[in-house]
């Protein structure tokens, strides 16, 4: 494995004896007051200041966070600004770094799979995006394959209509299946470049923040994939790139190729993660995060609606499982394993009642309690569902180790590894 090592003599060694940072103290903050670190603020700084909610964290587990927060406040006061004017403070949304990159994403994002261009109307899609954005959500995810490209068109139309600042949004899309032609799918250099150009045209955007390889492609050499992703980033068509449905070994190979040829490695893996699907996110991805900085953006926190409890007495007509293209979901629900899952959900509902929340809110908060998860993508078909799921932010502080242990005991599926990086 090839690892990148800086050789520029001008780069200072922070561990060098006697070296001091420009900002002084332990904050590591440069003279202009911002520095390179993120900030932590669990309590207010100074008398008379409104205390920050428990989730108003600028970063997690940083011993010098309070120092950095104070220096940031001094910087803002100098420019007649305040932390209380930020979206974070006004909405209560929590933000996390995408992997070990500097990109800050809302811990809850809005996905467009099945819903946009399919299950819901364009008007409902606009309502959902508006509720999400006004609640502090900045991450919106789509893919070229969703509704044959229609999802990207709807997403782009809404962004244009609402006149939201592009700099306030994190837009992600995924490439692999762009059409019926042999050259319109896969991860060849041709399709990555042409596919992303097509996505940008449909969304009426100059760039996306993250472009994902929607699945691995055994027909394309890894070097070609990494070079193509590096190219679209260097061309300004994307800021970062990531993977989706890749194995840990494939992600590590991409990282090794990037370091070997001085290319750009992936920063994030999109993975399914919910109460009944845990192995990859809790065992494999934490190791990748600590070794190479690849974060986790998870999807389907409610297991395609199974965890909502709406399938307890059968398949509702308006549900996803009733759709012809989701026959596999219907079979999964009515199977023996599906019935066992419904029984466990009844037990989990008692925990939700004790915490004063709904079962979906408990399930989403359970995903968020894993600090290795950068963001959880929500997929909802109506405003009421979205508002309910966004309420998981208030449940997160209640996810104590005792509550998590109770949930693990009911599920009986906690994966174990030699190193447990979970929170």
TrEMBL record:
It holds the Pfam family Aldo_ket_red. GO terms for molecular function: oxidoreductase activity; potassium channel regulator activity; transmembrane transporter binding; voltage-gated potassium channel activity. GO terms for cellular component: cytoplasm; juxtaparanode region of axon; voltage-gated potassium channel complex. Residues 11-33 are annotated as: Disordered. Keywords: Cell membrane, Cytoplasm, Ion channel, Ion transport, Membrane, NADP, Oxidoreductase, Potassium, Potassium transport, Transport. Residues 108-410 form the NADP-dependent oxidoreductase domain. It catalyses: a secondary alcohol + NADP(+) = a ketone + NADPH + H(+); a primary alcohol + NADP(+) = an aldehyde + NADPH + H(+). It is found in: Cell membrane; Cytoplasm. Residues 21-33 have a biased composition (Gly residues). It is a peripheral membrane protein. Gene3D superfamilies: NADP-dependent oxidoreductase domain. Its main location: membrane. It comes from the Eukaryota. GO terms for biological process: regulation of potassium ion transmembrane transport. Belongs to the shaker potassium channel beta subunit family. This is Voltage-gated potassium channel subunit beta-1. The lineage of its organism: Eukaryota, Metazoa, Chordata, Craniata, Vertebrata. The gene is kcnab1a.
